[in-house]
Amino acid sequence: MKPMIVLAAAAVLGTGVALAASGDPERARILDGYAAQAKAQLPAFAGFSAERGQALFLGPHAGGKLAETPACASCHTRDPAATGRHYKTGRDIPPMAVSANPKRFTDPAEVEKRFERDCVNVLGRACTAREKGDFITFLSNR
């Protein structure tokens, strides 16, 4: 019975769930940081959602900086385990799914750099901490 209590506590705090979902301690730390930010921004925050992350990934979204990229899937394909292609340069983009690219979302500086650039291009604004966590949660389970 005690493991269930520990698991429930971890779910509330984020740490255990993030590590279980991501399989990498660095990714778990990144998710825990976004969880703390999300809770500060939205006191009713109850955890990340793979479903919301999938909706963010697939779009379509209006208001982005680039009309050619109304969704993350515009460059990364609808299958996050597949290699994407940059819309302008044609360069390959490594898969977004953690199952196909285990190092994805493990470098905090790189994660923030990509969110800062790509959220503006796709959404026309910065992503919230909850959106970032939802996105990583979705791709960690793919």
Structure explained in plain terms:
The chain is mainly alpha-helical and 142 residues long. It has one domain (2-140): Orthogonal Bundle (Cytochrome Bc1 Complex, Chain D, domain 2). The protein has seven helices and two strands, in the order αααααββαα. It has helices at residues 2-13, 15-22, 25-41, 50-58, 73-76, 108-123, 129-140; strands at 84-85, 92-93. A two-stranded antiparallel sheet has the order 1-2. This is DUF1924 domain-containing protein. It holds the Pfam family DUF1924. InterPro entries: Cyt_c-like_dom, Cyt_c-like_dom_sf, DUF1924_SHP.
- Please describe the biggest sheet, giving its number of strands, its sense, and whether it closes into a barrel: 2 strands, antiparallel
Query: Percent of residues in helical segments?
Result: 40-55%
β content, as a range? under 5%
- With strands numbered from the N-terminus, the spatial order across the biggest sheet is 1-2
Q: Characterize the overall form.
A: globular
Give the mean pLDDT: 87
Please report the first level of CATH classification, the CATH class: Mainly Alpha
The CATH architecture can be given as Orthogonal Bundle
* CATH fold assignment: Cytochrome Bc1 Complex, Chain D, domain 2
Number of strands: 2
The sequence of SSEs as H and E is HHHHHEEHH
Summed up, the helix count is: 7
Poorly predicted spans: 1-20
Distance between the termini: 30 Å
Instruction: State Rg.
Output: 15 Å
Name the CATH superfamily assignment: Cytochrome c-like domain
